[in-house]
Amino acid sequence: MAPDMGSDQDLRANLGYEQARDELIEVVRRLEAGGATLEESLALWERGEELARVCRRWLEGARARLDAALAAERAADTEEPSGAGASEE
Question: Whole-prediction pTM value?
Answer without folding.
Answer: 0.70
